[in-house]
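=== Structure Prediction Worksheet ===
Name of assembly: unnamed complex
Input type: mixed (protein and possibly other molecules)
Chain count: two
Listed entries:
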Amino acid sequence: MITVTDVSKDYHSETRHIHNRVLSNVSFAVQPGEKIAVLGRNGSGKSTLIRLVAGVELPTIGSIERTMSVSWPVGTTGGVGGSMTGNDNIRMISRLYNKPFKLMRDFVEDFAELGKYLAEPVITYSTGMRARLNFGLSLAIDFDCYLIDEVIAVGDHRFQRRSHEELFDKRTDRSLILASHVPDIVKQYCSRALVLHRGRAKMFDDLDLAFDIYNDL
Amino acid sequence: MAFAEIRQLRRAFVLQKRIIGALFMREFMTRWGRRNLGFAWLFGEPVIFAVPVIFMWSVIRAPFEHGLPMIAFVWTGYLPILMFRHVTGHSIYAIKSNASMLFHRQVTPLDLFIGRQGLELMGNLSASAVTFLLFYLLGLLEWPQDYALFLTGFFYMGWWSMAVALVVAALSERSEIVEHIWQPVSYMYLPICGFFYLAEWLPPSWRDVALTVIPSLHAYEMIRGGLFGDRIEAFYDIPYLSLILAILTVIGLWLLRDVRKHVVLE
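=== Predicted Assembly ===
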């Protein structure tokens, strides 16, 4: 379970000497197996919230408790090294998370379908290819909760179908926090939605209602 | 200490060792990758720096100064300063430039620092070893009279470089000013660092001041005392130097502790 309690996050502006409050008094909980969407316009704090839950940034106020293992924020950047090849990234992640390299490589090879590109530096990949590598790497490690920042929507249909398979058919008991703009994907994956607006967050059990409100923002 | 705590400490140590190993490899791949010479660049880069400079010096200066062979004097001066400048110079934005690795919760800024600076340190130490052997085989350098002292000197030079790099790394993430002033500062440090003189050559009152305020001078004295033996009188104070470096290291670690706040993740 993940419990987010009264979390606020400020960023210090480098150019103007002020603090921007990106999130303010956000509270929610994620139960094992629960799939939650985070909706919000660009700059509403979706990625920030995901990083806070991942524990790679710390809240200014409030607390976040994790009693299950949580993935790193899986997006199109971050977590992998751009000038390293796909294979070297697999090797690095396998060492960081203490997983056998061969098993990880077989899984990523099969899931990401990058073929010979695994021997090329990640910096030469397209956004969709990076999404596949990043997501493949995180799926190769068994986390209880996956934090996904948009990447599913970036991929093509085949990738979307396979992601769905991995998260639903093979890992029904896993939790998911998914930041996305795309209604189709959110409805396919999630049962509840957290709508972010001006730093505030509200949880909706009804996805259609959540989208109505999101579209009116 | 309870048994369980020792086990826990050992587990943490093993975990950290694995993480630093992974970052070592990442740093290595990022800098030299799988292209052309690969790992040979680790010490190749510093060797390419050192060999021409030392030969140039040996041409423009007299073969002996103060009764010491010029090449040996320049080698003992230049290789350590090269290490210092490479290790500290690369420490600017050491955390920021690896920030994507902080996406993995178990990776700390200190791990990033050790991965990056450790590799730099190793490269420069192996360059010292390679050039030493090269010059020794060419008959340009003699075998150290007291190699334990010689190696101790390199150890302290490495520690001094890492301790300064730790402070520079942590401060550079806080303020861009560090990036702009570090080059001039390290230039001003060059004439006083111990490269160009022996403590023996200074008047006693100056010598005391120099040994008090310039930690690297002790390391230089050990390296040269080790190489030249009793042909020079080496001045160094290992307990004092260790204390100063320990204090500097603690300050650096303390500054690095909350550096995460200053690093913007992509």
